[in-house]
Write a structure and sequence with these properties.
By secondary structure, the chain is α/β, with parallel strands linked by helices. The protein has helices spanning 11-27, 42-49, 63-72, 108-118, 132-144, 156-164, 175-183, 207-210, 231-246, 248-256, 269-294; strands spanning 2-4, 33-35, 58-62, 84-100, 123-126, 149-152, 170-174, 187-192, 218-226. It is globular, with a radius of gyration of 19 Å. It comes from Pseudolabrys taiwanensis. This is Tripartite tricarboxylate transporter substrate binding protein BugD.
Length: 295
């Protein structure tokens, strides 16, 4: 079983189902995905932390469950760096800055000018403090010097729906979540984070192209097991994940959604543990400061 600590249909769930399907084929054994949402991903994550370390319970982890939660939940029942066995990174995804379609801006410069001119009258949605959409917008606002009002939702879906419906003004979220609405004309997209364009939104400039190279956030997904997993079992799961990510069909499905399969050097337990450590160091003070301002 692979536990997704968020509701069905969100970016973590979509990636997990693709990866679980690939790992199932590699193992010759079905991996069932179970959504255990609630409390910012901490309920499902905590369940896996307490599960028996036999290889039959896995976690589809994210920056929310493992980077944001430790900063935002002082009484968290798990330690994201100690209570899990890392299996590997599954995918990276850039963030896209999108707005409701009637915002009077047609490129990033015009959008930033609009944000600065209108200040707190501009409403920025996010899927909850510590969600990838919250983190992506915090960084964007800091880089461009914008100070919009914050409107929190319980997840990506409700936030996205309200941007499309025109109830709030803009949103920063993984390409996998906004790609369809952008291509369908329901949203405007101004930039994607990082140095290169996303193949899923080839007409949208990268942050480097658009003149804001400091807007760099690569949202990752990963697989963990409970701590204490026997090494032979861990090795088998690591190999299955690696084989799944080498499958052209898996890579194609992730790329079509705006994700990137990590190169071999960036997969596996070591790279996942290192990325987690580095991201906690980067985001912990930022998230704690943001949370304090909301309390």
């Amino acid at each position: 079983m692979m536990v997704v600590p968020y509701p069905a249909g969100g970016p973590s769930d979509v990636v997990a189902r693709i990866v679980a399907d690939g790992m199932s084929r590699a193992l010759g054994q079905s991996i069932v995905v179970e959504n255990v949402g609630g409390a910012g991903g901490t309920i499902g994550t905590g369940r896996v932390a307490e599960a028996h370390a036999d290889g039959y319970t896995l976690l589809a982890a994210s920056m929310g469950s493992h980077v944001s939660a430790p900063a935002l939940y002082p009484n968290l029942k798990y330690d994201s760096t100690k209570d899990f066995t890392p299996i590997g990174v599954t995918a990276y995804a850039p963030a896209a800055i999108v707005s409701k379609k009637d915002i009077p801006a047609n490129n990033l410069k015009e959008f930033v000018d609009y944000l600065k001119k209108n200040g707190e009258s501009v409403k920025q949605a996010h899927g909850g403090v510590g969600a990838s959409s919250h983190m992506a917008c915090m960084l964007f606002n800091s880089v461009v010097g914008a100070k919009p009002s914050q409107v929190a939702y319980r997840g990506t879906g409700p936030a996205l729906n309200d941007v499309i419906g025109g109830h709030v003004d803009f949103f920063c979220e993984q390409v996998v979540s906004v790609m369809g609405a952008v291509k369908g004309g329901s949203l405007k997209a101004y930039v994607v984070s990082g140095d290169t364009r996303s193949p899923a939104l080839p007409d949208v400039p990268s942050a480097k192209e658009a003149g804001i190279p400091d807007y760099s956030i690569n949202v990752w997904s990963g697989v963990f097991a409970p701590k204490g997993l026997p090494k032979p079992v861990a090795d088998k799961l690591v190999a299955a994940l690696d084989k799944a990510l080498d499958d052209p069909a898996v890579a194609k499905r992730l790329q079509e959604l705006g994700g990137t399969v990590p190169p071999k050097a960036d997969r596996g337990p070591g790279p996942l543990a290192e990325r987690l450590k580095n991201d906690i160091g980067r985001w912990d003070p930022i998230l704690k400061t943001a949370a304090a301002k909301l309390n």
